[in-house]
Write a structure and sequence with these properties.
alpha+beta; Aminoglycoside 3'-phosphotransferase, Chain: A, domain 2; 2 domains; two-stranded antiparallel sheet; globular
Length: about 325
């Protein structure tokens, strides 16, 4: 989450008039995250999240994201519920951008994950995958290796920044991943973005998932790889093996990793690190001047990638 588009109270109040969600009392921008503009809205009927879609979100994908959240919620997975307006529409426009309002999921992110958190995360990943198997729509992953290469090519066009030392290692790793990316692993719909700020907890219990705007069809083990990188490394990039073991144990309470997934897990981890590395580098180089967003350091994921190049999570 972030704030790229500024709104005033009159604009928001007028937009809310299209809904039966009450009168606007207050609002503020949420600066965590980097993809879309988000505001927390408080009305005399409750609290909601307004999202304006920026950057990498294709408006044509919004029905998939919305319908997936509705499906997951109807099947018992806790997540924000998109709100319909007075005309029964969910996807609307505000300030020239597509926008939705959703219910507010209670809870907060965990800043320092421990094994008990990771076990619950593994369990909900398995639950998500099981429920999503019954969802009839599909969406191609538009942030795959081809997209990483395109994003990185833009970074190479900028040759005057503090991260120049990353360029050659990224080029070499990109070539390796393109030549070794696995095929025909078990797949289905994944969340695709299960970082700490997208999983909420209350009283040490996982309360739900948010931000489904990278959801797509991809390898189930790739979801676990993304989550491993996000939940099983300290800020100093030290691998937390107990977190990883708990994550996998939680997942395997009702799902299993097969031999092909285990064999290719290191490559998936390296790819998951590369995805974040190149997008962070791009966002550092091309961040809009008027954006209210906390940029994230590409070096964090460069160091995680470097760790995976030298180690196996299963040998620790």
């Amino acid at each position: 989450m972030a704030v790229y588009t500024q709104l005033n109270k009159i604009e928001l109040a007028n937009f809310l008039n299209n809904y039966n969600l009450g009168k606007l009392i207050s609002y503020f921008g949420i600066i965590e995250g980097i993809e879309n503009t988000n505001f927390k809205l408080t009305t005399d009927q409750g609290n909601y999240i307004l999202t304006l879609f920026e950057k990498r979100v294709n408006p044509e994908d919004l029905p998939f994201f919305v319908n997936l959240q509705i499906h997951l919620s109807n099947q018992g997975l806790q997540c924000p519920i998109p709100m319909k307006d007075k005309d029964n529409k969910i996807i609307n426009s505000l300030c020239g951008k597509k926008a939705i309002i959703a219910s507010l999921l209670e809870g907060k992110k965990i800043d320092i994950p421990e094994p008990e958190h990771c076990f619950q995360v593994g369990k909900i990943i398995s639950k998500f995958q099981s429920i999503a198997k019954k969802f009839k729509q599909s969406r191609k992953n538009t942030l795959d290796i081809k997209k990483w290469k395109l994003i990185f090519s833009k970074c190479m066009n900028n040759d005057n920044h503090i991260y120049m030392q990353l360029i050659e290692p990224i080029k070499n790793e990109m070539k390796f991943l393109e030549e070794n990316w696995p095929i025909n692993l078990p797949s289905g719909i994944i969340h695709g973005d299960l970082f700490q700020d997208n999983i909420f907890f209350q009283n040490k219990n996982l309360s739900g998932l948010i931000d489904f705007y990278f959801s797509c069809n991809d390898y189930y083990a790739y979801e676990l790889a993304i989550t491993t990188n996000a939940w099983c490394f300290c800020k100093n990039n030290k691998f937390k093996k107990n977190n990883f073991r708990s994550l996998i144990d939680g997942y395997q309470t009702s799902s299993k990793l097969n031999n092909d997934e285990l064999k290719n897990y290191n490559i998936l981890l390296r790819g998951a690190a590369m995805r974040i590395l190149v997008t962070r580098l791009h966002d550092y180089l091309y961040q809009p001047n008027n954006a209210i967003v906390i940029p994230k350091d590409p070096l964090e994921y460069f160091n995680i990638l470097n760790w995976h190049q030298k180690n196996s999570v299963f040998d620790q």
